[in-house]
Fold each of these.
Amino acid sequence: MPIKAAVMTGPEQAIELWQLDDPKLEPGSILLETVASEVCGTDVHIYHGRLAGVPYPIIPGHISVGRVLETRGVEADSMGTPLAPGDLVTFYDVHETCHACYFCTVAGQPNRCPSRRVYGITYSAHDGPLGGWAERIYLKPGVQTLKLPEPLTADDVIGGGCGLFTGFAAVERSDLGMGDTVLVQGTGPVGLSAIAFSALRGAATVVTIGDPAARLELASAFGADVTMSLSDVPPDERDTMIRDLTNGRGVDVALECAGNPAAIPEGFKLLRDGGTYVIAGHYTDVGEATINPHIDINRKHADVRGRWGLDFSHCYRALRLLAKHHDMLPFARVIGGRYSLDEAGEALADVEALAVTKAIIAPSPR
Amino acid sequence: MPIKAAVMTGPEQAIELWQLDDPKLEPGSILLETVASEVCGTDVHIYHGRLAGVPYPIIPGHISVGRVLETRGVEADSMGTPLAPGDLVTFYDVHETCHACYFCTVAGQPNRCPSRRVYGITYSAHDGPLGGWAERIYLKPGVQTLKLPEPLTADDVIGGGCGLFTGFAAVERSDLGMGDTVLVQGTGPVGLSAIAFSALRGAATVVTIGDPAARLELASAFGADVTMSLSDVPPDERDTMIRDLTNGRGVDVALECAGNPAAIPEGFKLLRDGGTYVIAGHYTDVGEATINPHIDINRKHADVRGRWGLDFSHCYRALRLLAKHHDMLPFARVIGGRYSLDEAGEALADVEALAVTKAIIAPSPR
Amino acid sequence: MPIKAAVMTGPEQAIELWQLDDPKLEPGSILLETVASEVCGTDVHIYHGRLAGVPYPIIPGHISVGRVLETRGVEADSMGTPLAPGDLVTFYDVHETCHACYFCTVAGQPNRCPSRRVYGITYSAHDGPLGGWAERIYLKPGVQTLKLPEPLTADDVIGGGCGLFTGFAAVERSDLGMGDTVLVQGTGPVGLSAIAFSALRGAATVVTIGDPAARLELASAFGADVTMSLSDVPPDERDTMIRDLTNGRGVDVALECAGNPAAIPEGFKLLRDGGTYVIAGHYTDVGEATINPHIDINRKHADVRGRWGLDFSHCYRALRLLAKHHDMLPFARVIGGRYSLDEAGEALADVEALAVTKAIIAPSPR
Amino acid sequence: MPIKAAVMTGPEQAIELWQLDDPKLEPGSILLETVASEVCGTDVHIYHGRLAGVPYPIIPGHISVGRVLETRGVEADSMGTPLAPGDLVTFYDVHETCHACYFCTVAGQPNRCPSRRVYGITYSAHDGPLGGWAERIYLKPGVQTLKLPEPLTADDVIGGGCGLFTGFAAVERSDLGMGDTVLVQGTGPVGLSAIAFSALRGAATVVTIGDPAARLELASAFGADVTMSLSDVPPDERDTMIRDLTNGRGVDVALECAGNPAAIPEGFKLLRDGGTYVIAGHYTDVGEATINPHIDINRKHADVRGRWGLDFSHCYRALRLLAKHHDMLPFARVIGGRYSLDEAGEALADVEALAVTKAIIAPSPR
């Protein structure tokens, strides 16, 4: 039976519905029935042709949850948990990392490995159903999988999507200390996740600056102790509020999840001397920022850390905590719209217009 | 017998020679006969009034070496090495750190403690001989001291001066790995020290960009494997040379010791993905720099670290290595001029004009 | 008005009630009315003369909470929070650390500084009310203080006592990762605290081995997901349970809070390859343990970390979290008995007999 | 042309000479002419059947240097350096690590990956020339290779053998600080390498305890500042010498490279409070050691770290430094005997009898 897929045929071209052949399963592979995939900000950038090296036509959707239809000799997920048809799984979109080159070995930066391939981004639609905007997804041998732990549903995971894991990775990268005061800049999916995991990591106070009001409410639900509207609270007042919270010192840790260069100078300003600033929201080039090396970094003895991409460990660890603290991490509430494959273009437009925080593509019933 | 001191009476005022009363020694104090003090870049900034909170008139000179004249109940240096009159000692210019406030305790950043006082910078000349541009220096109780280990002389230490310790601290802050390729930006005292300690820390290749030719020769003597002239080698060629050295990847670690905002974008550009960039040369505000958060930090997964001030441990550790690798660290060669107290103003002018790499004030015979 | 104090006059001597003179307040000092102090395991060891260098007679009680009676020029606690008579404060029992010696500076181990003094342990009763088993406590200038944050009471803090901070420090020392499985050995005050802070730090599963049943119930209340009775569940079954929980691998992190050498081999056995084992319960010499360097450390690529004493930062951070997660950290429930100064000897006997988990000395009404 | 190989047919069976078929080269593979392989302590253990899971008959020899005979589509080594027939290369004996399991991903411990295979240890001689005691070695696709950097020869590398990399890894694992005092226990290949890299890493003083005299002389040549004979200097004197060197404190870092349980208690004793102790010499179970958890770990606030196996990065980094500091690392001098394939049994016996520090198997001319 052919597989229906929503295909991005080229920059700023209409999304087309294609019929793909069913893949021939290799040993070690898995075929999933797609339950939910996501539309993330990167998909909007790809749509506008802002990412280099994308082999259009592609099937977007890098983070997805599917139901196991069939496996070829695979009896457990990558962590050793038994896997059977019918089980819900998610998978790590990055694979074919070489584990032999300078970046993989000496630098410890597999995310910069030139061999890596990414579901939903670096595969042509001619290569098969290798993206989540399709009725079925073919997991090649070696793709790392995770059975969803109880009581998680597809919505719990895809409501966060790659933002869930990116926010987690930003918190891990910060090495925040128990009892710290943390500022999260941005209240999109990455920011909401960063808020939640900052709180679960032991921050005593989590402050966020974002917009609009609906997202600030979500921020509170995810664990923000203080929320400030970017548009309603002027920068001076934001500064005053942070000083009041910290005996004048600034925050211990700031997490940039805004993707706006204007956030950078404010982040430096609100950071205390000796604090840590993680830049995790700039997944595309949206322009430059001006810093003062003396004031912002040298005299401040600052630690500034970029966080590019994820490791599989982030997926594993994040889902373990999501399962444990299910009630405190209502990612399903972040879902603003549920779209069929036919509506993928509309979903993309809604995400770009910020009409929804998270749009999900749901080719099959939950 | 009164103490002759060279006093900076105010911003851009002529240096005056004063006669100070001999201090009354408190229990736990030490009186030194000054053998050598330094004129460092910070002194030039203080002369121009660019440092906030300086209580003019002051006796400059924060890093100095002296001969013990007299002690009050002090029988060993801070590390437990016996101390007697006639011994050469250096001391840590920062003291009265409170060890109780937020910065001292929770943040682990005693260099941001509001109580700290600094010899040669935060004391008025009316407070006594609390700076190195004087015939004698009074070490208050609690000032941390180090007897110079064999075979070090005052020139070995003051030839590096505070740059010696700052360069050391920059290397330590970088966590450079054995076998790494390191770029040092700048070949002043901080840069030369960073070159030397990068090599002693286990870098496989140390590259430097600096000027003028005489300093590049010193850089080679201190362990640089490759030197590039800032003025003669255009930026494109510098980039090409770094790419050739690193299979196209960029350096593992970059150490900014230049104090020029223009160095910042070049440092980011020459850094490999996942590399570490220490900003250690911006001890004064000399302007802003433009960065691209996506390209320079986020996608690069960069680690950017400011380094403000020193710990006493840096002094101890640096002198241990200086004594061991005495021949490989010819800091005495960095001394471009030796000035009496009467010539302090001239020394300051020569340092500002870059006529000498390191000027020393030598009130007493070696 | 004289100060009543319970004094330990010598090893295995009856506790006496003394009357002490009211101290003369120096600038920077604070006088507290003691609300609650603790009887901890160390006090039992001191009572039996097992700690070297104790200057009997002493007033025990190193962690205490008091109400500010009077201050001399002190307007804020050490973190900058305003302080006034009537406020409840706790303080860091260690002080007079020199911040200049090898251990304080180069080694970064102020807890090994030879100059440090400790309230309730290293002061003679002749020195004044410098321990918590007294109606009032004199805080010398420089003692670090913390105003209890809302809504904490003395019971919330002293119900944990020094175990609260020691457990916190053990968790911090472990660098446990979000989503980890953690084993806590021991369910006394240190173990309960380690359980609670492991959960608040982001552990996905916290397992504990301890006794008796009442403490295992407390362990569950503090966040343990799985509890095993040391006496009822034989070692083989404990091993099986841990293997079942971890796909056969063992725990990511083990925290020894048992103070029994028999716990050490079991901790190594239950630790996964590459895991981290913190030894935090051996505050006194209770005998040796046998390990296999090949199996337990080298082949396991283990990380084994001792944790001696506390930093003030642990107190600050722990109280911040205690205030935030007040309901999840019911330390007040750990209090098994409340004793007046007259009953201090009885309190000591009850702690030694394990008749109570935590005994508090309450010289004044709450 | 058939390949001659020395085969260990079973525990304590005579080494046999076999003739193997020339392998059929797969895409991505390399065929080497063996220049030198090693006999290491592990080979002795394998000979006695002390390693679990060895599929006798095997061709021993895990670390080797060969000359490239032929490649299938391989134009560069794993770091991107061009590779051509005639070049000398070494390779990382471990491969087929899965990079997907819990140990590879979440735990960051690929050395505990159940899928890993090791040249010279986990392959049957029936699988082909997959060990260094053979005229030629077949490098399967994906085996990580390093072209020897100028001016290194096979002897420079195999004179250290796996001890060279293990010693390097032990130093890296210790995080030793610049200016530290380091104790290396053991003066076999691992110990000598640890001495050399401790010095190159920036230790100020390197002390070693070992035997016999010839090895202590090598230790000095490799950078030991102080050597003590295990048999001639009694433990009390060793303790006194260490105390004298460290103002009574003990060493900052101890590296166990002795493989003898008796070294463990001495290592703990000689370590300063807050020091780091790396256990890197216990590659086989040679018995238990007794420690005191209170004195050795808890009160000492010790950091004890096992180091199991290597990463490829250690090989790359070590060779970079070996090439740079060629004269200071005379590993070729460690070679005590050079044996043909026919003499492999004799080589094994000499290593076991400690008649040579390092025996090399040289099937082909240098």
Amino acid sequence: MTEVVVGIDVGGTNTKFGFVDKVGHCYREESILTNAQEPPELFASRVAEAIKGEFTSLRSTHSMIGIGIGAPNANYYRGTVESPPNLSWKGVVDVVGLFKKHIPLPVVITNDANAAALGEGMFGAARGMKDYIVITLGTGVGSGLVANGQLIYGSDGFAGELGHTIVDVNGRWCGCGRRGCLEQYASAGGICRTVFELLAVRREDSELRSISFDELTSIMITEAALRGDVIAREAFEVTGRILGLKLAEAVAHTSPEAIVLFGGLAHAGDLIFEPTHRYMEQYMLNIFRNKVKLVPSGLAEGNTAVLGAAALIWHELTRRG
Amino acid sequence: MTEVVVGIDVGGTNTKFGFVDKVGHCYREESILTNAQEPPELFASRVAEAIKGEFTSLRSTHSMIGIGIGAPNANYYRGTVESPPNLSWKGVVDVVGLFKKHIPLPVVITNDANAAALGEGMFGAARGMKDYIVITLGTGVGSGLVANGQLIYGSDGFAGELGHTIVDVNGRWCGCGRRGCLEQYASAGGICRTVFELLAVRREDSELRSISFDELTSIMITEAALRGDVIAREAFEVTGRILGLKLAEAVAHTSPEAIVLFGGLAHAGDLIFEPTHRYMEQYMLNIFRNKVKLVPSGLAEGNTAVLGAAALIWHELTRRG
């Protein structure tokens, strides 16, 4: 019997799950609708039924030993999700408790970025490392910090909010109510804002001048930059400078062996990696220079979040012995 | 027999040591000249002799079980000190090896801020906490970060350099060769620089207008502020704003239960704690607000560094079982 865990990734639209063994092989990844309007009890029961259904074909050869869940606003210590931005769940929801009711196995939950960090450490770009940071550059900017081989949850379970470190106290308004958060500069939406700032300030021609704020996406900026568009290229330079500065600060905190960039904006490859790395080195204290690797995710595209959630429970089961 | 460890604090002028038991009682603290010009071999041999000499009177009732050393530029992993700023030791010195030659016991070394952090956790203001940060506001700004009950050394042993996170990329020149490091704002010298900036910009009378840059000390600023001097009070406000912002950033990294402020500038009490705490709350992401304690050192004045070094080796001996 091969031992597998279930990795569950709760998204605003779809919830994905898969059965993952200890070396990161993912069996039967499935996706079901999250139904964001549905009460969490119903959601947990539907997902649990789907898991049980999918597992029937594996039952003769595999044993299911735990469940890991990645979800927005999840709290590892309490096993809860609190007022998630994309779901209509109210207040504090005991997600771990709900799942245990249906599947009596060890269940753990954490936010998506922390799950991604454990996934990179177990199956991806940070394999074998004890000190590293994973930054997700998607709709938002998330992060998971690992030190001494352990994820840093902090006193309340909410550590690793690098997306809400402040770039400029008088900067862009953030959804969190403050100004100048990194998330407003280094996310997919952030680089769009940077383009609009540049279009206002600079005089160069740009194909991006014909696109409205509502229409512009980070993929359009990447494509324009690859075609040599000056504004698009400069937007990556600006983004890399800001992200590089904040990564240098993160290095001063935990001195990681590597920083893994993950998610939408990281797909721009060298366009974002080159300036980010250059500025990170420039803004870094001399003792850290030329040591910290800046690398893309090492997890297979598509099921990264499921692998991350699976790594979370594998990590937990290993720790508990 | 009561078990004790030796805590050694290597300073530029004096080296202090003491015998410390597991509850932080310090027996026979002594101080000898460091003789910064002397080769490290001679230094280690002198200190070891002094330790043995002092221990004779304790020998019948106490057993010595390890040595902890706090020193500038110390590397925990390698047991070395590298080009310390205040000593003429050249290159990389194997301090742990030198001490073991004279006293065959477990020996560990780390920098002063990390030792202070472990001291606060074992004997001081962070007793019982698993996640906290200690910031030393002295000639420089040092820090030690503890997460999951362990000091964060990072991949190279140099984690926790919050004094060299950047406040302003175009800011004050720092001894490290870069610009705008926190150390140039929140140290004893930093607040003096802030006073000179304010004297240039503002028109208010101030007793500090009669003091030269070379003469001004942070203690003079504290005394002037206590007498109601507007510039001196504003200097603490500015320092608190900058330090508060950087502490909010540190919270976003590791979400500590408390931040302990330690060293020269922390002695200004409410003058520095009040604005620092106010701005830290203002610049902090909502989920962290009204949770993080900002507290002064809980270690007895005078032998804080010795207690820190002792905590380092106690921590190590406990971990090794």
